[in-house]
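Expect chain and fold; see below:
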Amino acid sequence: MKNIKYILVAFACCLFTGCMDEDWDTPDTTDAFGNKNIVETNVVTIKSLKDKYTSVINASSNSYQEITDDIQIKGRVVGNDIQGNIYNEIALDDGTSSILICISQGGLFAYLPVGQEIIVDLKGLYIGGYGKQAEIGTPYTNARGSSYVSRMSRIVWNQHFRLLGTADPSLVSPEIFDASKVKDATYLIENSGKLMTLKNVQFKNGDGITTYAPEELKDAANCVSREITGFSSSNLVVRTSTYADFAAKPLPTGKCNITGIFTRYNNIWQILIREESDVEEL
């Protein structure tokens, strides 16, 4: 009798295993990211968006304003958190300009790779400037009582964007940074946030030992700014997070081309390298 019971139990286990195997198919993630109900309508250029809110973005304090118009922007991702240097942000460019979108979520590169086109429904989101860098997100107030536009929750973000097709990185290429205009206020306003390349330059501390972002030199934002020979640190720096995958790598010793998202903090260009390969040694 015991043998019969064991046989029946074994047979039942096989049946349940078989059922589980049938249900354990690869999940359909087609609609896992974004809002498929967003329909392309009332699309404005990023440049016109920034022009409309220029007084908010360029305010002396970190100002922001809710977008109440039923408008959208459409563009391609040109920068993300692929190696941890760009934190909780993507850079979006539509050919007219670029803007940062702040999202409280890690691993954005997995579904928002460089070259991915998206449409963003702006109504209900906020636009503002952090150090006059144009950003889209939601308001945040820090412990000191300072408020500014910052990271929206991933739930809010998921309601406000839609993926368009598949990523095509071949459609993304950096502009050449005009070093002669490093102090030009208009050039700064028009190009901050873009993917650009600073050509044929050298890190001031590139001795083969000094690293991008050692822990002991980090500032309050857990970042280290490195100078470029021939440029004042009050005009342009390369800014690296201590959490970046390449933070402990030594700076190049010779001439190089530096590609990254050229953000601003007030009147200082801050180059955010997306990944280590953005620095091309010559």
Remarks:
- Residues 178 and 267 are 16 Å apart (CA to CA).
